[in-house]
From TrEMBL:
This is Amidase domain-containing protein. InterPro entries: Amidase_dom (IPR023631), AS_sf (IPR036928). Residues 52-278 form the Amidase domain. Keywords: Signal. It comes from the Eukaryota. Residues 1-20 form the signal peptide.
Amino acid sequence: MSFYSYLVCLLLVLTINISGHIQNSHSFSIKEATIQDIQQAFKDKTLTSRKLVEYYIQQIEALNPLLKAVIEVNPDVLDQADQADKERSKGGSFSGMHGIPILLKDNIGTKDKLNTSCGSYALVGSVVPRDAGVVAKLRKSGALIMGKASMTEWGAMRSSRLPSGWCAITGQGRNPYYLIGNPCGSSSGSAIAVTGNLIIVSLGTETDGSILCPCSHNSVCGIKPTLGLCSRSGMIPIAPSLDTVGPIGKTVTDVVYVLDEIVGYDEFDSEATNSSKHYIPKDGYKQFLKKDGLAAGAVIVDKLSIPNINSVLNPALSGESQVERFVLKSSLNAYIEGLVYIFSSEEKTPTYGQEMLVAAERTSGKIGAAEIKVLEKMRKLDKDGFVTLMEKNNLDAIVTPASQFSTVLAIGGHPGISVPAGYHPNGLPIGITFGGLRGSEPKLIEISYTFEQLTLARKPPFYQMLTKPQYTTTQEQGITSSNSDPLIEMITSSN
Ligand SMILES: *[C@@H]1O[C@H](CO)[C@@H](O)[C@H](O)[C@H]1NC(C)=O
Ligand SMILES: *[C@@H]1O[C@H](CO)[C@@H](O)[C@H](O)[C@H]1NC(C)=O
């Protein structure tokens, strides 16, 4: 994209700032509003779901040509909005997500007019057997399915040369703070759309870093839940022993509103979600949105180290890359066999190739003795490393800059929450990640919420580089991509 087309986009942005606010007699502004604000406006009858959805459709039309965060808008979303408005007008009690639109990463299946394509032309036109487990739960809560978000194609499993945030269908997703900056992936569109006010909340998925990293790079909050807390059924998989699905929003509160509606058992992902009942607190997660999460006596334990951290962080040493390869083949083949219909159009491969998919295809795709050994090695690395460290030191959470700790959380199925923390002088945001042992979401929510309320670091996008003439097509790596040992600080509460 040339500098001149950026100027055109800048004009669009300015127009949106003037006309994009839907205001009414009570001066309610949707931009940067939270779910709580919106639910209050519904109650006060100063806003309807239809008005809300119309606002986001308008935002997508104006900003998506620049940001490329959205692949498809659901043709039925306005009808869903009208239905929600009708239900509320009759009175009663509703879930926190009732009447709220949500955007889904393009690897999360919906049985409706939307395509589920992983950003790839190869799956456009395919018909899924049913809604993904989390989508079924969202529909039940009264949430509105807004559409599909762009992503790093195939969850970055197509080719190592594929830039983060690029997929064939939309092209390169843009970081709204620093337009030549890395938006990070693979849930890139889900994070960009939320931060750019193209939607209020979204779902992303994470195998290793795919929620935490784009949240950090786009100044939004995201939860990568404990493995098994939320169903992965109907999600285009990478490796079921690592895959998770979780919410993205501008505030910790917004993501908790979504989390409350997507957790729990699903018969189509029964083995993993069977454990969810041990994790979900009675009365849900909103009760942990309280400011004393870092109670007066929080103790910071510094300079602790995980003895096997170098093996853990190196996917070739830990076995993570092997697992992704041999499991990708079997899980992807199972997904494709489960489709009701597959219309196989040609993948747009010449640009970046597909050597990772080819490497996966060359494996047996079967879980034999050698593969089980690799999986056991990963479990042992987790147990001897992170789990032992947390238990021995009686730690509640571990805090790291950006998403550098995602691999440690990934191999053990542990949860993490990313919260906006600040900005690089070039405009690129950076987040902070709080991670903990399986099932520690309540504590992590308390800590993240307190951190957020004390810092209030998030700012709306800057759109830097829109006005600077030195546009370069170089894919700039984000400030967080480094293979050095992460700076690790531990937090433990004194009580
Ligand atoms: C799904 O893909 C088909 C084929 O490209 C397209 O015609 C259709 O409009 C897409 N669906 C939506 C909701 O965009
Ligand atoms: C779920 O857990 C129960 C015990 O809590 C067990 O009896 C049952 O077999 C498990 N189901 C699956 C599908 O793993």
